[in-house]
Write a structure and sequence with these properties.
The complex is a heterodimer. Chain A is mostly helical. Chain A has 13 helices and no strands. The interface between A and B is large, with 73 and 67 residues.
Chain lengths: ~325, ~500
């Protein structure tokens, strides 16, 4: 187990190294000049050259990359073009907002998707099943920003139950945090729940048609026991993967939702950095997201072994 | 299902929660009395985006200046009519040759941290902008030296008479007086120290900036205890925040709802004509736009009323010259009536047919995208096929800089003195003359007006230049937009300004 984790962590380092190179090269292909954006419309040419030099953009690309990499290895991800502040702290201070939104959204989604998906599968063709399918079709096809705006107009406007936007840190004021996270998490969670519901339903249906399920029923086990012990356990392996992939992608920040709800997370940081062509911050944010993604995948692999005794990690 | 199986999942979740709990956003040090019972209260203001940084000399973002307007001072500052009035400087004299300006500083001014603000700080601030070639260095083009003979006197020596020096030194907070130790420690980017009515309390990256009353302020003490700026990009959400009472002020109103809001009575919404202008520029380095007849044909083909209706829901004033009626340099001149026949004739004279014109607009300013569709249909009526190209602003600026366009639409914001916008845009050596307009007569007028110290003569020179610029259709000016801002009925003492400076120093909040 320890060797497995160690090997995977080493592999992750190689992947991250690749990420830095690919991201660096891709950003060079993006049209747009960060110096012009920073200066706006009124400046003279000397100012342009001076800022370009200060930002290190007058250096050759190869030098820029190795300079970046050398410092990144020591944990220094450079400084932002826009603010001149260290990227490491800019990115890390956005992490709590994104983590708390992503985790809440996934918890919300699983609380909806598991009962709905299971019911939908064991009562296939029933009213519940149809309702669940309409729900998941709605969730995946309606744009999340529209759902978000409708949520704001209803819960913040008409009903006045929740604040329309903003963020309060969980550590500062848990109740304030909960009221602020509710709308964005529900919006993101609905989309995730729709995807999960479909997946749990089909995965359950597949297992339900297995011979051992028929055997279990034939030997007189109660439906409840059959579903929970035999069907769900076996249906869970692919579902865990999907939940993890959903969580990992939410950790990358939900750009549209974060922008809409004025949520100070990684997604909004990415959006602002793209607008400003703030390459150091973009590189830092993408690196962090990639690292989180790898971590989540590692945890999932370990989880597989716990769920299914036939799988061992080596 | 056995509970041990899920122990690991539970542990993962707990780990994430711990990680969440272990971090807080920002490096905020909360020093304000927002929860205290003092009389003034804290005003919450929603602005459309986050400042890139708070160093007034290095930022060019309007969001930054919305905050910094309340934190910093300049030597002089524009009043409601954009005339320069004393601020840190109480009086000034000009030598007979107009090359030496001597400013007397206000007595007893202190930075918000209590340290005195002296002429050395003025010298430091201006020298920093000039020597480090920062954003506003162009405003100091004629400044030879800045010296401080004594703590309350600043002497600015010029290489040529500069009649708009006051506008250059006080037009906006980009030329604010900063504190040397604050700059050298690097804190200026997130926690700037100024001498204005408010000071930075805390900055939570991505979320909000809290200002607290500066008790060392030299002027009348602000009535508010503080102002909290939150960054709300979506106008619908910002309006909802205002309606719900989460914020008491915003300038991020959905434009299509402003006319109805002006008539409503649950909020105060005011709309005043701004000194901004929006225009269409044709690339004169490319054929056939080098031909004045083609440019004039486009000018005659446009129906400005229809454009402002579509793009600004009527919240704008059409104008064929740059600056609006309330400006001291307004020049009444409107030779282009909407006349497609005249336009077609001019195109015939130029020998142009089957013209396809590229029009570059940017999603950063949605009004350019909406206007472009109207412009395209109006030019379609005279047989010009417009291909609209919508880019994000970074790419837009890049294309503009390289001259890769037939035409573009953009605005020029916060205009105070004509030298600043006419010279940059219409002088053949201007830094913003990307459409390559060159008329020696205009160059000469702009050069002369730049150093003309007789105000009446200067105004006349700018009028001549303005007429020529419009006749040559160097820019095809379209409209001056209104500034619309809304606040709750609790707020009193706030005025919407034509230069869009946001000043909360005289505002009070009823509770």
């Amino acid at each position: 187990m320890a060797r497995f984790v160690l090997r995977r962590l080493l592999q992750s380092c190689v992947v991250l190294l690749g990420v830095t190179l690919v991201v660096f090269l891709l950003l060079q292909l993006v049209p747009g000049d960060p110096v012009r954006v920073a200066l706006g419309t009124r400046f003279d040419p000397q100012t342009y050259e001076a800022l370009r030099a200060r930002a290190g953009l007058d250096q050759p690309l190869v030098a820029q990359y190795f300079d970046y990499l050398g410092r990144a290895l020591t944990g220094d991800l450079g400084v932002s073009f826009r603010s001149g502040r260290p990227v490491t702290s800019i990115v890390l201070e956005r992490l709590p907002a994104t983590l708390s939104l992503a985790v809440t959204a996934v918890v919300f989604a699983t609380l909806i998707a598991f009962p709905l998906g299971i019911l939908s599968a064991i009562r296939s063709g029933s009213f519940v099943d149809h309702a669940a399918r309409v729900f998941s079709q709605f969730g995946v096809s309606v744009p999340d920003f529209w759902m978000g705006i409708m949520g704001i107009l209803l819960f913040a406007g008409v009903l006045g139950w929740l604040p329309p936007s903003g963020y309060v840190a969980l550590t500062e004021d848990p109740a304030g945090w909960a009221s602020h996270v509710a709308l964005p998490a529900a919006t993101v969670g609905l989309v995730t729940a729709s995807i999960l519901t479909r997946f749990i339903r089909s995965s359950m249906l597949e297992v339900l048609s297995e011979d051992y399920v028929r055997t279990a029923e034939a030997k007189g086990l109660r439906t409840r026991v059959v579903v929970l012990r035999h069907v769900l356990r076996n249906a869970l392996i692919p579902v865990v993967t999907v939940v993890a992939v959903q969580l990992a992608s939410l950790l990358g920040g939900v750009i549209v939702i974060e922008v809409l709800f004025a949520w100070p997370g990684i997604g909004r940081l990415t959006y602002d950095s793209v607008q400003a062509r703030d390459y150091p911050v973009l590189q830092g944010a993408i690196l962090l997201v990639a690292a989180l993604f790898l971590l989540v995948n590692l945890l999932v692999d370990i989880l597989y072994a716990r769920l299914d005794p036939r799988i061992t990690v080596r | 299902m056995s509970s041990t199986r899920f122990r690991l999942a539970g542990a993962t979740f707990a780990l994430l929660l711990v990680a969440v709990a272990g971090c807080t956003t920002g490096e905020g040090v909360d020093v304000d009395g927002a929860d205290g019972a003092s009389a003034g209260g804290v005003l919450n203001a929603a602005i459309g985006g986050e400042p890139d940084q708070l160093d007034p000399h290095k930022t060019s973002a309007y969001y930054s200046f919305q905050v910094l307007e309340n934190v910093y001072d300049t030597l002089v500052e524009p009043d409601a009519n954009l005339e320069m009035k004393p601020s840190l400087a109480t009086e000034w004299t000009t030598s007979d040759d107009q090359l030496t300006w001597t400013f007397t500083l206000r007595e007893g001014v202190r930075f918000s941290d209590g340290s005195p603000l002296t002429s050395e700080d003025v010298v430091y601030s201006y020298t920093r902008i000039i020597d480090e070639k920062l954003n506003n260095a162009y405003r100091f083009g004629t400044v030879k030296s800045v010296t401080a003979p004594d703590p309350s006197t600043v002497v600015v020596t010029l290489s040529a008479p500069t009649p708009n020096l006051l506008a250059n030194l006080g037009g906006f907070k980009g030329v604010a007086i900063v504190q040397k130790s604050n700059v050298e420690s690097g804190a200026v980017t997130t926690k700037p120290v100024g001498s204005g009515p408010f000071a930075i309390g805390s900055y939570n990256s991505g979320d909000s900036i809290r200002l607290v009353r500066n008790d060392n302020y030299w002027g009348d003490k602000p009535k508010l205890d503080g102002v909290t700026f939150t960054f709300v990009k979506d106008p619908t959400v910002a309006l909802q925040n205002l309606r719900g009472g989460e914020v008491q002020w915003t300038d991020n109103l959905p434009p299509q709802q402003v006319p109805a809001l002006l008539d409503g009575d649950d909020l105060t919404v005011r709309s005043v004509p701004s000194s901004d202008y929006w225009y269409l520029a044709l690339n004169q380095a490319r054929k056939p736009y080098d031909d004045v007849n083609v440019r004039r044909a486009v000018a005659f083909a446009l129906d400005r009323e229809a454009i402002t209706k579509a793009a600004k829901f009527g919240l704008a004033t059409v104008n064929q010259t740059a600056i609006p009626q309330n400006s001291a340099y307004y020049y009444e001149y409107a030779p282009y009536r909407h006349d497609p026949n005249q336009a077609r004739q001019l195109l015939d004279q130029a020998g142009v047919s089957d013209l396809t014109m590229d029009l570059m607009v940017t999603s950063e300013y949605p009004e350019t995208v909406t206007s472009a569709q109207v412009i395209a249909s109006q030019l379609g009526a005279i047989g010009v096929n417009v291909k609209i190209r919508t880019l994000d602003f970074a790419q837009w600026l890049d294309e503009q800089g390289k001259g890769n366009f037939d035409s573009f639409m953009l605005g020029w914001l916060g205009n105070v003195d004509p030298d600043e916008f006419y010279y940059a845009q219409h002088h053949s050596g201007g830094t913003f003359n990307f459409h390559k307009y060159a008329n020696p007569a205009v160059d000469q007028l702009l050069d002369r007006a730049r150093t003309e110290t007789d105000q009446a003569a200067r105004k006349q020179q700018y009028e001549q230049a303005a007429k020529q610029i419009v006749d040559d259709a160097s820019y095809i000016y379209l409209y001056n937009p209104d500034v619309a801002q809304g606040w709750s009925k609790q707020v009193s003492g706030y005025e919407v300004r034509t230069d869009r400076a946001i000043r909360f120093r005289d505002v009070a909040l009823a509770r």
